[in-house]
Amino acid sequence: MLLDTVSDSMLAWYRPQMPALVPRQERAPRAGEEVAVTPLPYRPGGGADRRAEAQGRLLEATVRLLADGASFTELGVQRITDAAGMSRSAFYTAFPDKTALLLRLTQDFQDQSAKLVTAWHSDDVAGLAALVSLYERLMALFRRHAVVWAALREVAAYDPDVRETRAAHVERLATGARARLLRDQQAGLVPASMDVDAAVTMVVWGGGEAMSRHLDTCDAGRDAIFAGELARIVWYGAFRRPAE
């Protein structure tokens, strides 16, 4: 089930990092006089800073609208800028179009998920317990960004750029799974008869679709159960499939 509300900690994910406040002296101090230092509020100093701030506000507004039940397809630029308290022209200063906004919205958490998966694939001694932990962490990550993940899948159904970007992300995961299975196969831990490419497709693409279905239909209380079952299916069905 998708999020009903969006926490401040989740929204902070999409906000740009602002420089620290800079102290300012009002005038040169006289001899023996204490200096009063007043912190200045942050004001973007250059074009890059202004663009980053605008992007953060637009990303945050989009997440709020998605969490309120809007589909990404029906969100117009005007509605997003109204929610962000910005002008329509400011949107196009920050992003060339809505597709670019969506891809930026999904970039960081997809990179983090790839990092988690790659770490398991690269560790040849990581076993079932580590795989269960991996899926639990992935479920927590995707649960946190469920509305954004749903928007990505929604738009990928009709937008070739988004579809290709999503496919490239999945292929990053598939590359690691393929390498791990081939190493295990060479070590005699996986049957020589296994078709590694077919197994990788089922593990990576099939596992991703199963996770999406779970997020859409189940609450967070079942995430640990789901992660454990998926990990065991992947482990015993592929990485430690018994010899025939």
From TrEMBL:
<dbReference type="InterPro" id="IPR036271">
    <property type="entry name" value="Tet_transcr_reg_TetR-rel_C_sf"/>
</dbReference>
<dbReference type="InterPro" id="IPR001647">
    <property type="entry name" value="HTH_TetR"/>
</dbReference>
<dbReference type="InterPro" id="IPR009057">
    <property type="entry name" value="Homeodomain-like_sf"/>
</dbReference>
<keyword id="KW-0805">Transcription regulation</keyword>
<feature type="DNA-binding region" description="H-T-H motif">
    <location>
        <begin position="76"/>
        <end position="95"/>
    </location>
</feature>
<feature type="domain" description="HTH tetR-type">
    <location>
        <begin position="52"/>
        <end position="113"/>
    </location>
</feature>
<protein>
    <submittedName>
        <fullName>TetR family transcriptional regulator</fullName>
    </submittedName>
</protein>
<dbReference type="Pfam" id="PF00440">
    <property type="entry name" value="TetR_N"/>
</dbReference>
<keyword id="KW-0804">Transcription</keyword>
<keyword id="KW-0238">DNA-binding</keyword>
<dbReference type="GO" id="GO:0003677">
    <property type="term" value="F:DNA binding"/>
</dbReference>
